[in-house]
Amino acid sequence: MTRTTERLAVTTPPTTDLDEATALRHQLADELAAAGHIRTPAVDRALRTVPRHAFAPERPLHAAYANEIIATRHSDDGTVISSISAPWLQADMLEAARIQPGHHALEIGSGGYNAALIAELTGPTGHVTTLDIDPAVTDRATRFLTQTGYGRIRVVTADAEHVPAEVVPDGGFDAIVVTVDTWDLPWIDALAEGGRLVAPLRLHGYHWAISFTKRDGALHSDEPLIVCGFVAMRGDGAWHRNRCTVPGTGVHLSWEDGTPLPVDELAPALTCEPTVTHTHVTVGGQEPFDALTLYLAGALPGYCRLSADSDGDNGVLNPPPKHWPGAAIVRGNSLARLATERIGDGDDGKGLYEFVVHGHGTRGHLAAQEMAEQVRHWQHNHRGALCPHITARPTASCAPPARDHELHVFAKKHTRITVDWPIVPGPAALLIDRGSCSAR
Ligand SMILES: C[S@@+](CC[C@H](N)C(=O)[O-])C[C@H]1O[C@@H](n2cnc3c(N)ncnc32)[C@H](O)[C@@H]1O
To answer: What class of enzyme is it (predicted)?
Structure first.
């Protein structure tokens, strides 16, 4: 993933002349500029101006200016349901939104701070609307925005699935910044032609902040995707994991963007030793491979994500998937899943791994070969692209799909999302020469 890293001139006055909050704010902005998250003078000025601590008065000053998320509201079970996003992510998303003076901008998911940053970008001639489903959040945002002098921002309590028509300006918003994890993009009509929309979009359970420009009534992505995490959407647009548990195993399969397949027949497959299909494709211990999983999700019918209870999988998966649900496909009573095998220390000492595919069940080896082939296809054709081009078209404007699984198409309620992978081969050195299939 490339990022513009041009350094901005540091504009911090000597810290001795500043009160503590202002000094911490400039320190944070310096850090974000040095890391390439702040890339334009306008975003730089906004982050140096808006008093972040005034939107998190419960926090000590230094915590308000840490480059971290601040949780502001929890559900009864302790889940975070509202927060002030991490400053690096806010800076990245605001840069991607390309908001200009005089723009009409909509923020989905409120808190106050980010709306104030947006208001600095739109300036006195612009208009900012921030919308949240939770009255406790909008009350708090209204209070803090008034106290900090941003009372012109319009704060609306509504479900973002149904943006009230009266808040949409004639011709649509110039920019929409979505700050809540969303499965769909029901805001195309509310965006002006040529306008920008930045949103953390879920595609088969993986989520990235994606920036789009609206052209000819559709959204087209045109910047690197940003790996991120946001609180979950509530209300009518809440996403469903479609999670099925393989009986008696503590192994779960999720079909967020696909049709759940029967899992009852899979239990015997999971209790047998898997076959291991080598892909000959390597990955560094610290190297993200989200792009590969998104590629597999679009390339393989029956794709799902597999997770296992840490204490409830009966030892059937060895090694069990770590941290994140892993890529898997189901073929009848058999299953294949992506795994990694350590094959060395790597140049940086952080480990070198090979992608392997475990096949479970009578036809598991065939499913594993199918997945391994796609891993190699991605390596040979697309890995160098780092990220794909994504297009979101209103579902109503699309012809019905020709078949159940259209390659690299994610059918949502409001939009049909197409993922185009440019042909840019991955580095040849990442391919290793080993036998292709072995049983463990
Ligand atoms: C990460 S917080 C927003 C952070 C904020 N933009 C800031 O200043 O950093 C996400 C917000 O989305 C809100 N939200 C969740 N579901 C929503 C929905 N359907 N419509 C509108 N807001 C929603 C939550 O209540 C939460 O306050």
So the answer is: transferase
Could you give the CA distance from residue 29 to residue 370 in angstroms, rounded to a whole number?
48
**Residues of the chain whose pLDDT is less than 70?**
1-18, 311-316, 318-324, 386, 401-405, 428-440
CA–CA dist 129, 107 (Å, integer): 6
Q: Are the beta carbons of 51 and 148 closer than 8 angstroms?
A: yes
- Cα torsion angle, 342, 346, 350, 353, sign: negative
**Residue found by looking up tokens 């692209």 in the block:** 385
pLDDT on residue 440: 28
Give the residue extent of every domain in the chain: 15-237, 243-386+424-439
Clarify whether 75 is annotated catalytic.
no
> What pLDDT score does 6 carry?
40
Q: Give Cβ neighbours of residue 323 (< 8 Å, ≥ 6 apart).
A: none
Topology of domain 15-237 in CATH is Rossmann fold (3.40.50)
Going from the Cα of 179 to the center of ligand 1, the distance in angstroms, rounded, reads 6
Residue 9 neighbours by CB under 8 Å, 6+ apart: none
Q: What is the pLDDT of residue 208?
A: 85
**Residue among 179, 184, 185, 414 to mutate when testing ligand 1 (max atoms within 8 A of CB):** 179
Res 10: pLDDT: 43
Per the residue annotation, which of 82, 85, 307, 334 is the catalytic one? 85
